[in-house]
Write a structure and sequence with these properties.
The chain is an all-alpha fold. The protein contains 13 helices and no strands.
Length: about 260
């Protein structure tokens, strides 16, 4: 997360416009929807800037303190959970804006959403499911090295080998991750398809929105939920293991990155 700060800082001021075009790519807003969606996105980011950025600074300062020393998996997970908990306020603030958009959606836009999901799923399968086991492991290792070097600087060979071993033992199963991805997408499409044919009732739509958000955050499928929990814990352990294998100079670089962006 800290490694992405420079990108986030650059993107944040442009985020309302980028968010609009990202959503439009999925839903293809009509002429009546466009002004309201733009206004809702602008007001959402104005609220976020005034109410949430202070919490993020506190979070970054705590992460900065952890970066200076050895850490354990529990500390990483606690920091991650704290970041996720902050999303509750965002979801609550987003709800009336999301419901306004849902009330105006039609069946054609739901099909546009499904079409975009299908397109992105083809790319996902190509990146994460196609290839031999060793090729897929190489790809995951390269991704891990790329992200870690943004944070710590250049990794040595032993650290790269550690990342490869962590990736191998992480429990990440691309087939399970793809099933989880498909379940969430199908849930959103089915919900929106149902709402596009329902009587336009704000309270009913708000309830459907809240239930969809909860199912997206915590899948109701027991097998996929267990997989997600296991993978999350393994990721926390991997972050701690790599960090504890870094040099004092690499940790100092991580702390400086955090200090600059705080």
């Amino acid at each position: 997360m800290l490694a992405s700060c420079s990108t986030l800082q650059f993107a944040y001021n442009s985020a309302p416009e980028l968010t609009y075009w990202w959503l439009d790519g999925f839903l293809d807003f009509n002429a009546e929807q466009k002004p309201q969606v733009r206004a809702d996105i602008q007001s959402m980011f104005a609220w976020h800037r005034s109410q949430q950025l202070g919490q993020y600074i506190t979070w970054l300062e705590r992460a900065q303190t952890l970066a200076a020393r050895n850490i354990n998996a529990e500390e990483v997970c606690a920091l991650y959970d704290e970041a996720l908990d902050s999303l509750d306020h965002v979801v609550k603030e987003l709800e009336p804006r999301a419901v306004r958009m849902l009330l105006t959606m039609d069946a054609a836009q739901v099909e546009q959403l499904q079409k975009q999901y299908n397109k992105k799923n083809r790319d996902w399968r190509k990146e994460w499911l196609q290839g031999t086991p060793d090729e897929l492991l190489d790809h995951r290792t390269d991704k891990g090295v790329e992200q870690a070097e943004k944070f710590y600087g250049r990794l040595d060979n032993s650290q790269k080998q550690l990342l490869r071993q962590l990736a191998k033992n992480s429990g990440f199963d691309p087939r399970m991750s793809y099933l989880l991805r498909l379940r969430r997408q199908a849930d959103s499409v089915d919900t929106l398809r149902k709402l596009s044919t329902h009587a336009k009732d704000t309270d009913a739509f708000a309830l459907e929105w809240r239930q969809l958000v909860e199912r997206t955050r915590v899948t109701p499928d027991p097998m996929l939920r267990q997989y997600s929990l296991h993978l999350s814990k393994a990721n926390c352990a991997s972050v701690a293991s790599l960090h504890n294998a870094t040099t004092p100079a690499q940790r100092e670089r991580a702390v400086k990155i955090g200090r600059v962006h705080v």
